Amino acid sequence: MAKSIGQEFVKGLWDEIPPFRLVLGLCPVLAVTKTVQDGVGMGMATTFVLFGSNLLVSSLRKIIPPKVRIACFIIVIATFVTMVELLMQAFAYPLFLSLGIFIPLIVVNCIVLGRSEAFAYKNGVLPSMADGLGIGLGFTMSLGALGAVRELLGNGTLLGASVFGPSFEPFKFMVEAPGAFVCLGLMLAIMNLVGKK
Amino acid sequence: MREMIKMVVVLTVLSAFSGGLLAAIRNNTQDKIEMQQLTFVKGPAIKDIFEGAKNDPIQDRFTVQDGDTERTVFVALYDDKAPAVAMEDYGKGYGGDVGVMVGIDVEAGTVIGAGVTTHAETPGMGARAKEDPAFAAQFRGKDAATPIRVTGDGGEINAIAGATITSRAVSAAATKVGEAYTRLKPEIQDKVKEFTK
């Protein structure tokens, strides 16, 4: 069942949207979605890594021996993650400060390794690029949406701008870790409800 | 046997390539990253101290050798008064090292301003050393060549209520900067002349 490039791209945005449909990569989903900005920043960084590693893994798939493929994937992924880390420090230092340890932790994000193993190692370069970009954007959207809900309720702001005015009493629970679980659970439930038809 | 050699070769080449790539990126972003760190970590204190400077003190900096260590000196130039320099040093606070940036008038040798850069003091107590401008303002006009102390130790700085240890740390750091300045005065004055040209 060969899918077109377009289908490979679109599936990441809904059918296989990482945190909700695949329920993968939950660590950054819970940790860095306190604000929209952090969530989207993290998502973009992951997208870059996904795109790069899928591209490289798929183009090297005939050379990489099956027995050491995981080691090779990790080298490729770690290279891209370090690249993101350096570039973020150089060009978006405040974002780097707020994401902190979660940038190097993209290396062990199971979405990235999962796409290399399950997709890029078995498919051509173009579909792999589409897959990486689609899954990455889906991940970014999820983090952004979760971040928006938590920032709005927990802080009364959206992208740093006050929404409800000064009379709003922030629902602090939402920006703490338990709030992330509750929020993620509710969003999963809604996604399932909508997806069921 | 052939398979094993292939595995070794592929892994080696891949690692070497990624190492080389990352080294190249690191070399190219290093200056930029240092600049970002200065802007976002030390920048606010430097801007406060050098209010009204006509140049960018973070851009106009040089290093001098002080014994085994290298000190970074920030230079500020003014239209209507003598140039000033700023250096940073650390004092032992309640929660670790307290970094203090101290600006010194090059001609008069007096402190023109001080500001806390990095600290891990208790919020609401020692942390006020950074947040309360009135505390830092006390350092203005002090002679850099004589030790700066809190009133309890026979000096002129009024300690922050409930945060004597932090106040002492800031004073000690300021004293260290003063001592360093006195020690390195000829060298610093020479270098500053290059900027005033």
Polypeptide structure, described:
The complex is a heterodimer of chains A (197) and B (197). Chain A has one domain (19-196). With 197 residues, chain A is mostly helical. In chain A, strand 1 (157-158) and strand 2 (161-162) form a beta hairpin. Chain A has helices spanning 5-11, 18-22, 26-31, 36-59, 69-91, 93-99, 110-120, 125-155, 177-196; strands at 157-158, 161-162. A two-stranded antiparallel sheet of chain A has the order 1-2. The longest helix of chain A has 31 residues, at 125-155. Chain A is globular. With 197 residues, chain B is α+β, with helices and mostly antiparallel strands. Chain B has one domain. Chain B is built from four helices and five strands; from the N terminus they run H-E-E-E-E-E-H-H-H. Chain B has helices spanning 2-49, 128-131, 133-137, 164-196, and strands at residues 61-66, 69-76, 84-93, 96-105, 111-116. A five-stranded antiparallel sheet of chain B has the order 1-2-3-4-5. The radius of gyration of chain B is 22 Å and the shape is globular. The N and C termini of chain B lie far apart (70 Å).
Secondary-structure map:
The complex is a heterodimer of chains A (197) and B (197).
Chain A (H helix, E strand, L loop, with lengths): L4 H7 L6 H5 L3 H6 L4 H24 L9 H23 L1 H7 L10 H11 L4 H31 L1 E2 L2 E2 L14 H20 L1
Antiparallel strand pairs in A: 1-2
Chain B lengths: L1 H48 L11 E6 L2 E8 L7 E10 L2 E10 L5 E6 L11 H4 L1 H5 L26 H33 L1
Antiparallel strand pairs in B: 1-2, 2-3, 3-4, 4-5
Question: Nutshell version of this structure?
Answer:
The complex is a heterodimer of chains A (197) and B (197). By secondary structure, chain A is an all-alpha fold.
Comma- or semicolon-separated keywords:
heterodimer, A: 197 residues, mainly alpha, two-stranded antiparallel sheet, 9 helices, B: 197 residues, alpha+beta, five-stranded antiparallel sheet, 5 strands, 46% helix, 20% strand, globular
